[in-house]
């Protein structure tokens, strides 16, 4: 399904209100492909987003789900005290640091019942029985991977396609098991390296994600074997994205470094470096989604106040090159640039 689209550009799922039905519909109607982000959404809210997207486009689109991980029994008290101090500062109460499964099973049932044609998974591989049920209703199953080992696991459960995520990527790293001894939760492979290693490991079509912001980048990953390029940050500043104003202006000013942190959610994720990340990141335990719930009121209050220093400003390494355009216009520029890049490369070979 993804490989058959006329334009090999995918707008990444971006949870937390960024992936709107309008954004997904605009990219799909332009000939690309897009995913709604089911992460953090209730089953009802996801159903509503699917219906709205269907009312905006007759083209197919996908849904992305967070695979629940193991419940960590790490002591959260020291980190809770830090976040409580932040909560005082922003005039809110810290959230309850509970573990939950993000209504995973209910959302799996929903995408099956709704016959969503492409379902992608991150933070792990679904069970083989889930993949089998999705196949029974004709869905294509995508699993996001960061290493050849994860690619092997995804292939074993029957994935049709892999989304290979390089360490350049904005947002959460897709690592299956967050290794707390490593800042990135596992090996930090750059996208081209990851693509090469994954393709050597398994014989499945791959979509490439991480730091792609220009059409020449799209051409590069197609040349490296991908069937499509998945871009998140490049679409963050599109008109249709639900990105908050403070995040848009930080992206536009392009002044911050990006870094990988567990500070906000307990899982490694790449975002613009700010005060919260610098002060708390090194102390943050590997406890997802407990930290996500704990810090949620602080992030929310900071966002409302337009204060970028305690928001999770997820963005990939190339964020400063993101262009604030309508999504369809961005898609057509990416295609044009990719064609030019291919021509240029052809002249060199
Ligand atoms: C704000 C933001 C939110 C994201 N949320 C999700 C998500 O819900 N599910 C997912 O699989 N990936 C998510 N990602 C990661 C993307 O799928 C993709 O790997 C990444 O955007 C690629 O790197 P780029 O941002 O440099 O283009 C998110 C990325 C960003 C920037």
From TrEMBL:
The keyword Cytoplasm does not apply. It catalyses: 3 propionate 3-nitronate + 3 O2 + H2O = 3 3-oxopropanoate + 2 nitrate + nitrite + H2O2 + 3 H(+). CDD domains: NPD_like. This is Propionate 3-nitronate monooxygenase. It comes from the Bacteria. One of its GO terms (molecular function) is oxidoreductase activity. InterPro entries: Aldolase_TIM, NMO. It comes from Saccharopolyspora rosea. Its cofactor is FMN. Belongs to the nitronate monooxygenase family. NMO class I subfamily. Keywords: Detoxification, Flavoprotein, FMN, Monooxygenase, Oxidoreductase. The keyword Nucleotidyltransferase does not apply.
């Amino acid at each position: 399904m993804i490989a058959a689209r006329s334009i090999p550009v995918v707008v990444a799922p971006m949870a937390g209100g960024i992936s709107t039905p309008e954004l997904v519909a605009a990219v799909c109607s332009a000939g690309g492909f897009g995913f709604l982000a089911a992460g953090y959404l209730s089953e009802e809210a996801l159903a509503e987003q699917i219906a709205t997207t269907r009312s905006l486009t007759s083209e197919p689109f996908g849904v992305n789900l967070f695979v629940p991980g193991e419940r960590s029994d790490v002591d959260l008290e020291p980190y809770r005290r830090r976040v409580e101090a932040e909560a005082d500062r922003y005039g809110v109460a810290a959230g309850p640091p509970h573990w939950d499964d993000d209504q995973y099973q209910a959302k799996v049932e929903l995408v099956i019942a709704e016959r969503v044609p492409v379902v992608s998974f991150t933070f792990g591989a679904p069970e083989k029985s889930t993949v089998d049920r999705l196949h029974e209703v004709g869905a294509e199953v995508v699993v996001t991977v960061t290493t050849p080992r994860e690619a092997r696991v995804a292939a074993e459960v029957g994935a049709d396609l892999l989304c290979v995520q390089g360490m350049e990527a904005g947002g959460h790293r897709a690592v299956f098991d967050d290794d707390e001894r490593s800042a990135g939760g596992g090996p930090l492979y750059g996208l081209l390296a990851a693509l090469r290693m994954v393709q050597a490991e398994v014989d499945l079509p791959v979509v490439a994600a991480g730091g792609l912001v220009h059409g020449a980048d799209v051409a590069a990953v197609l040349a490296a074997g991908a069937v499509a390029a998945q871009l998140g940050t490049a679409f963050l500043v599109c008109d249709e994205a639900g990105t908050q104003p403070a995040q848009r202006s930080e992206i536009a000013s392009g002044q911050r470094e990006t870094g990988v942190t567990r500070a906000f959610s307990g899982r490694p994720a790449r975002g613009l470096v700010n005060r919260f990340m610098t002060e708390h990141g090194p102390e943050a335990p590997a406890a997802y989604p407990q930290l996500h719930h704990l810090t949620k009121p602080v992030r929310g209050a900071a966002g409302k106040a337009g204060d970028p220093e305690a928001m999770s400003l997820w963005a990939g390494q190339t964020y400063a090159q993101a262009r604030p355009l309508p999504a369809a216009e961005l898609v057509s520029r990416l295609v044009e640039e990719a064609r030019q890049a291919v021509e240029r490369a052809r002249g060199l070979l």
